[in-house]
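hey so u asked for the seq, here:
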Amino acid sequence: MKYSENEEQKNLLNQFLASNGVELSADVLAKLYAFADLVVETKEYGNLISEKDSQKFLSRHIADSLVPYIYIGKLVDPIAALQDDRFKVQDDTANFRVDILSKLKGKRWADMGAGAGCPSFPLAIVMPEVQFYAVEPRNKRVQFMNFVKEKLHLDNMTVVGKRFETSGLAYLDFVSCRALSTFENDWERAQPGLARGGQFVTLKSYNNIVHLENDPAVHIYKYALPQEEQEYALVTRGNE
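ran it, structure tokens below
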């Protein structure tokens, strides 16, 4: 069954987004569903995802990939997010997010170890203002992501078939990764590519980063995913 026809998965994703003050247009949602179908159904580039995860790709992987978008105000301008009353009222967070997104035009965001495209492709779909770089050394994954880029007409996406350290990318506004290695190892890899004032953004199991709770350089935003038992965390660190 295609994800556009999977009402249970669509409802879980949309309830997750709504509970975090996010409402996406029908066109954007259709593109996210199309991306999910491509990951799950495309076989010529190898097994991109386990059978178990293919059953819950929207509620697990797409939802997780969009967490940085949910918190984009705190990533771009944490002081403004703290002071702006709209960020405290769910009905107004959408208006606040629109204001923040207007500041992102032309910003550059690289995703290390992009794999089959999470979180970089869902983020590129919801944030067309930003130039994304999906950085991945494995050739079959690179071929798949280039195929998806063309299929979905993502003009703000560039697929880079290298390790991040040898990609030549520098002075980036954001560098992200999802469940790649430890926070410390990922930060060490990401930091040289960041511009001054740039943000490192990573998605982890909360149990793996609990030791960072008292680190003043690190910001942690805990969240839960639909029908998942464990706690997760968006973890950020600015490049001073």
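The first helix runs from residue 7 to 19. Confidence is low (pLDDT under 50) at residues 79-92.
lmk if thats what u needed
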